[in-house]
Amino acid sequence: MRVRGSGLSQVKNFLELIKFEHTIFALPFAYVGMLLAASVLPRTEHPLGWPTWGEFFWITVAMGAARTLAMGFNRLVDRVLDARNPRTAARPLVTGKVAVSTAALGTAISGLLLGMAAWRLGPLPLLLLPGALVFLLGYSYTKRFTWMSHFILGFTDGMAPMGAWVAVRGSLFTLTDWPAWVLLAAVTLWIGGFDLIYACQDVEFDRAAGLQAIPARFGVAVALRWARFSHIGVVAFLAVLGLGLNLAWLYWLAWSVIIVLLVYEHRLVSPDDLSRVNMAFFNMNGYISIVFFLGVLGALLNG
Question: How far apart are CA 115 and CA 129, in angstroms?
Answer without folding.
Answer: 8
